[in-house]
Amino acid sequence: MKAGSVAVVVIDDDVPMWDLYELGVVCTVFGIPHRDLADPWYDLRLCSAGGGEKQPGPFGLTLHTAHGLDALRGADTVIVPSVPEACVTGERELPAELLTALRRAADSGARMVSLCAGAFALAAAGILDGRRATAHWMHTRDLARRHPRVQVDDSVLYVDDGDVLTSAGVTAGLDLCLHIVRRDLGAHVANQLARRLVVPAHRPGGQTQYVEVSVPETDDDGLAPVLQWAREHLDTPLTVDELAARADMSPRTFFRRLNAVTGSTPLQWLLTQRLARAQALLETTTLPVERISHLSGLGTGTNLRRHFTQHFGVTPTAYRRSFPPA
């Protein structure tokens, strides 16, 4: 497990205000050292084409990067946080030198990542051909239309296709960045970093919950206490009826409101929390699998192994070998 170098592509010198969020997410996650969690931390470099004096854009903000596109080659990870809106709609083509630099980075073995509309750059470079990928749900139709060789999935927050990863829009980019930290440095580091950023380490559900009418009109703040209580009692049997009663709702209402907020059914949400607890215990303790299964509320070790393998693609024992307790 290692952090490695991260090269971030800044396509426009005048980055639109909307796109500053994705760029800020990348810089916050990978550019601020947390050496008490992992040492060394990531080596971040911002890269763009051109150089010299640049005139401020319409918002009075101009970014000067220390590196050109040649710095993409040799980076362990290359991230495209966004592309200009005109490049999404097809009114403007992405610079040929950028596409060449992205292809060379991919050919040299770099892990290629896009956030939101950054997928259009990877697609234009041919890096997404034949691969499953996603983008902001407002752009996925254009992505599929303009790049028919890409297997566009508009239902997920992010796609991890091994050496190529793509995310949906805005905050989903933070989900993907934390996922990358989890892959590189383990769940404990990712969870602690998420706590410092005051965000969930993992959000269940996909971006379909945000399409069109995504936020329910009713106030669901009343769910927070019962969900927190459930997380603190994962080692006990929990039923939908019990959780609904604690939320002072009927089971049907509880089901509907939890689904509206998380995109999951109550049972799916509980399973996700139990697996996260098992994952953390595997990383931070030497407890046997049977004990971890009990503490996470999954019952027997056999049940834990089955669900863990289905969800993470590896057995609990294999996972512990990859992320041994400190």
UniProtKB/TrEMBL annotation:
InterPro entries, per the entry: Class_I_gatase-like, DJ-1/PfpI, Homeodomain-like_sf, HTH_AraC, HTH_AraC-typ_CS, INH-QAR
SUPFAM superfamilies the UniProt entry points to: Class I glutamine amidotransferase-like (SSF52317), Homeodomain-like (SSF46689)
Segments forming domain HTH araC/xylS-type: 224-322
One annotated GO molecular function: DNA-binding transcription factor activity
Keyword annotations: DNA-binding, Transcription, Transcription regulation
CDD domains: GATase1_AraC_1 (cd03137)
Residues passing through the membrane, by range: none
Domain of life (superkingdom): Bacteria
Name this protein carries in UniProt: Helix-turn-helix domain-containing protein
Organism of derivation: Streptomyces triculaminicus
